[in-house]
Automatic annotation (TrEMBL):
Keywords: Lyase
Keyword Zinc: no
Protein name per Swiss-Prot or TrEMBL: L-ectoine synthase
UniProt keyword Hydrolase present: no
Species name: Nonomuraea insulae
Origin superkingdom: Bacteria
Length: 124
């Protein structure tokens, strides 16, 4: 059995926020569970070529914009899943952080970070 508390897990600054990777590949579960904060007022161009991701909003507000430009509002209780390795923009409200519980499959190693210095979507 694995027991972890969010305050006991070091955060990884992933680009526009901090992610506490509660489960990673070395845990042997086959997926990663994160408690991720997206900093207020940020816009993140993201894509996961090697992972599928589902996110559930527990606090804050924002929008996720798909590659076609369709905007989807995120409020507490909203889940979105990137079931086709979708490129997307994650935008946090200018007035508050966005907090998401996320699942990645297959599991992350735990140290991955985004690079927003490229023109395309940041990916890993």
């Amino acid at each position: 059995m694995i027991i972890r508390r969010v305050g006991e897990v070091d955060g990884v600054k992933w680009g526009n926020g901090i992610s506490r990777r509660m489960l990673v590949a070395d845990d042997g579960m086959g997926y990663t569970l994160t408690d991720t904060t997206v900093w207020a007022g940020t816009r993140s161009p993201l894509q996961y070529r090697n992972h599928l991701e589902a996110c559930y909003c527990v606090s804050g507000t924002g929008i996720v914009i798909d590659a076609a430009g369709n905007e989807h509002r995120i409020v507490p209780g909203t889940m979105y899943a990137l079931d086709k390795h979708d490129g997307h923009y994650l935008v946090a409200s200018p007035s508050e952080d966005l907090r998401l519980i996320c699942v990645f499959s297959p599991a992350l190693n735990g140290y991955e970070r985004h690079d927003f210095g490229t023109i395309a979507f940041s990916q890993y």
